[in-house]
Write a structure and sequence with these properties.
Layout: E1 2-5, E2 10-13, E3 28-31, E4 36-44, E5 50-53, H1 59-63, E6 70-71, H2 87-90, E7 94-97, E8 102-111, E9 116-122, E10 125-130, E11 136-140, E12 145-148
Parallel strand pairs: 7-12
Antiparallel strand pairs: 1-2, 2-5, 3-4, 3-6, 4-5, 7-8, 8-9, 9-10, 11-12
């Protein structure tokens, strides 16, 4: 998400990814509801990360982007290590307990800061599943099934 305007046309960003390779200079990103393609000229990580986008040269142009989302399509995203997945790849997978009990379908990945939380909707309503090793046991990408351990308090 693009935030407050900066100097020299830089924009402050709220990161919703830990894959900083997707923000390297030269990468193409898509900005705003119209998904306008542009290129990253510079990225400054840190407490208040900033991006310099091609075509944004003034404070006013940067300010016009306030609140806009910035996206990288999955097919253009940096590859992840084996066994790691982007949150968007998990949307729509079936979630089941280690016992085989069907919990529901993963509908949303919520970023909380410390760990992601999966919003799962099933016949019994919604369940919030912390994406931590004690809970998430396995993901089978071919079957599109996420297996979780139903620790106390999840139901």
């Amino acid at each position: 998400m693009l935030g407050a305007f900066g100097v020299r046309g830089e924009v402050r960003v709220r990161l919703e990814t830990d894959v900083l390779a997707n923000l390297e200079p030269g990468r193409r990103v898509y900005v705003g509801p119209m998904r306008a393609a542009t290129e990253i000229e510079a990225f400054r990580p840190g407490v208040k990360p900033r991006l310099k986008l091609r075509g944004v040269y003034t404070r006013e142009e940067a300010r016009d982007l306030r609140g806009a989302e910035i996206a990288v399509p999955l097919d253009e995203a940096a590859p992840l290590p084996d066994g790691s997945y982007y949150g968007v790849e998990l949307i729509g997978v079936r979630v089941e307990a280690c016992s085989g009990e069907q919990i529901g379908v993963l509908r949303e990945v919520l970023s909380t800061g410390s760990n992601d939380v999966y919003l799962v909707r099933g016949r019994d309503g919604e369940v919030l599943v912390p994406a931590i090793p004690d809970v998430v046991q396995a993901f089978d990408p071919e079957r599109r099934v996420l297996t979780i351990d139903l620790i106390e308090g999840l139901r």
